């Protein structure tokens, strides 16, 4: 018998002073049985960074044809494709062909090894950006995970703060590859 996804609920308040975006989002997050709390919280972080009216969670880990997050325009064209983890180069190049922008949020201690293998293979992808969440910060973010969460995300001058109650985590993303 297949295991079912675990449903998480998050009330996410976003204050993104860099983009001038201020909003509350009620998120329902399906955590695949093979997904860790750490990976799920990186998906929530990516949602907060790119929050927009049409941004939504994709099937990601359970479907090779969908990303972890995506934003489509009114014609159903994919404007933004977001991957979490260390996807292979074929998946990313295919995503680059289907979307205006592709952004990867890698995390975990193996990110450096993964990127050394992928860097030259992905050099030609001009609409690809790769960011790394340092492992100590992604592990601290994981500790905020609960089945029902009240989260606050503040973004200012490129610094990101995610908090839940008295716990707060500062995220300093490392740019591995920028667009162009």
Please characterize this protein's 3D structure:
- InterPro entries: Restrct_endonuc-II-like, YaeQ, YaeQ_sf.
- It comes from Undibacterium aquatile.
- It holds the Pfam family YaeQ.
- The protein is of the alpha/beta class.
- It is built from four helices and eleven strands; from the N terminus they run E-E-H-E-E-E-H-E-H-E-H-E-E-E-E.
- The strands form two sheets. The protein has a six-stranded mixed sheet with strand order 3-4-5-6-7-11.
- Strand 9 and strand 10 (167-171) form a beta hairpin.
- Helix 1 (37-50) packs across helix 4.
- It is globular and about 45 Å long.
SSE order and pairing:
Elements: E1 6-16, E2 21-31, H1 37-50, E3 55-57, E4 69-72, E5 78-84, H2 89-98, E6 99-107, H3 111-118, E7 128-133, H4 135-142, E8 148-156, E9 159-164, E10 167-171, E11 174-177
Parallel strand pairs: 1-8, 5-6, 6-7
Antiparallel strand pairs: 1-2, 3-4, 4-5, 7-11, 8-9, 9-10
Helix pairs in contact: 1-4
Residue ranges: pLDDT <50 for 5 or more in a row? none
Helix content: 10-25%
Strands of the widest sheet, in order across it, are 3-4-5-6-7-11
Q: Determine the structural class based on helices, strands and strand pairing.
A: alpha/beta
What's the pLDDT, averaged over the residues?
Answer: 95
Shape: globular
Strand percentage, roughly? Answer: 35-45%
Kindly state the number of beta strands: 11
Main sheet makeup: 6 strands, mixed
Spell the H/E element sequence.
EEHEEEHEHEHEEEE
Number of helices: 4
How big is the Rg?
Answer: 16 Å
Assembly context of the chains: single chain
Distance between the termini: 46 Å
């Amino acid at each position: 018998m297949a295991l079912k996804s675990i449903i998480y609920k998050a009330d996410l308040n976003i204050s993104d002073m860099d983009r001038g975006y201020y909003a509350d989002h009620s998120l329902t997050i399906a955590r695949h049985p093979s997904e860790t709390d750490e990976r799920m919280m990186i998906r929530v972080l990516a949602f907060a960074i790119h929050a927009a009216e049409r941004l939504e969670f994709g099937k990601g880990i359970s479907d090779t044809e969908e990303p972890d997050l995506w934003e489509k325009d009114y014609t159903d064209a994919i404007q933004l494709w977001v991957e979490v983890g260390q996807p292979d180069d074929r998946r990313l190049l295919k995503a680059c062909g289907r979307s205006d922008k592709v952004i990867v949020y890698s995390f975990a201690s193996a990110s450096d090894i993964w990127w050394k293998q992928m860097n030259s293979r992905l050099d030609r992808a001009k609409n690809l950006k790769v960011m790394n969440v340092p492992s100590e910060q992604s592990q601290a973010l994981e500790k905020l995970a609960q089945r029902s969460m009240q989260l606050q995300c503040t973004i200012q001058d490129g610094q990101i703060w995610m908090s839940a109650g008295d716990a707060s985590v500062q995220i300093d993303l490392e740019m591995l590859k920028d667009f162009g």
